[in-house]
Amino acid sequence: MSKISEFFGLNCKDDSLDFEAAMSAQTCPYTQRICTKMRKSDPNVKIGTCSVKYQNQDVIICPFRLLEHNQIFIDCLHLLTMHEPGNELYLVPEVQIPGGHVDYFLVSAKDKKVKDFIGIELQTMDTTGTVWPERQRFLNETGIAVDPVDLNNKKPFGMNWKMTLKTILIQMHHKSETFEHLNKHLVLIIQKPLYEHMKSDFNFDGIEGVRLGDPVHIHSYNFEEKEQRLTLSLHTRVSTDSEGIANCLGLNAESKVELQDLIRILEPKLIEANRLKIGISG
């Protein structure tokens, strides 16, 4: 039995789905674009593995999988403390700040002038090895012809829990100082197994409960099967500050930017394509 849980957003256990059509289209259902997970030996072939089965859990391995229904962004709206009815909401991807880039900025604006914003980082698991042989085994199980060489490849993939977490916590620490300096919020979105490893592998003393005034928030999500679909739901929220993140790692760094500098970066990106879509488009 293959260890692939989802293939281009489709539940691999649902035999009624057209996996061959998904393989041909190579479209990510969460971005409506071509999948970015490409095979190194042939970049034209997209791997399409959103999540995999590992140690009896369905583990997300692509950050775009977290975009389901834009729920993760809706769950952050309360942190836009300066947002008012009538303001527009924008979702601005890939913004560069000191300390690195931020995956998304959720921006409240009036007449395309920034009134408030929060930064949102997405983190899913990094795998060791390759999931390609498992992908090919899955396709073979569904009756789709694949290269026999791939089926004979017995190399397993693994999960690099500690390195994934250390990398994101270091990045969060650098960026959290900037957001704390600006009196704004930075949110980390992760899946429940990653959150549980974070608590067990790093010093989480004092990081419990959630306070609106804290600059750093962590939202952990369940990923469970409901009605033949794997679905995200909010599991828990905690918050802290840059010192709390530093205590996890024993780090010390400064990467600050002034508020007006960041607003100058954001406002040119407040375009129609970046409006936050909620519910029925129109």
Termini Cα gap = 43 Å
What is the CA-based Rg, rounded? 20 Å
Q: Averaging pLDDT over every residue, what do you get?
A: 91
Strand content: 25-35%
The succession of helices and strands, N to C, reads EEHEEEEEEHEEEEHHEHEHEEHH
The largest β sheet comes out as: 6 strands, mixed
How many individual domains? 2
Q: How many strands in all?
A: 16
How much helix, percentage-wise, in residues? 25-40%
In the CATH hierarchy, the architecture of the largest domain is 3-Layer(aba) Sandwich
**Strand order across the largest sheet:** 9-10-11-14-15-16
- Structural class estimated from helices and strands: alpha+beta
Oligomeric grouping of the chains: single chain
- The CATH class designation of the largest domain is Alpha Beta
Poorly predicted ranges: none
Protein name: Restriction endonuclease type II NotI domain-containing protein
Pfam families: NotI
Domain Restriction endonuclease type II NotI: 19-198
InterPro entries: Resctriction_endonuc_II_NotI (IPR022009)
Task: Compile the SSE list and pairings.
Layout: E1 4-7, E2 10-11, H1 19-25, E3 27-28, E4 33-34, E5 38-39, E6 42-46, E7 49-54, E8 57-60, H2 71-74, E9 88-97, E10 100-110, E11 113-122, E12 127-128, H3 132-141, H4 148-151, E13 158-159, H5 161-182, E14 185-191, H6 192-201, E15 216-226, E16 229-240, H7 242-249, H8 259-266
Parallel strand pairs: 11-14, 14-15
Antiparallel strand pairs: 1-2, 1-7, 3-4, 5-6, 7-8, 9-10, 10-11, 12-13, 15-16
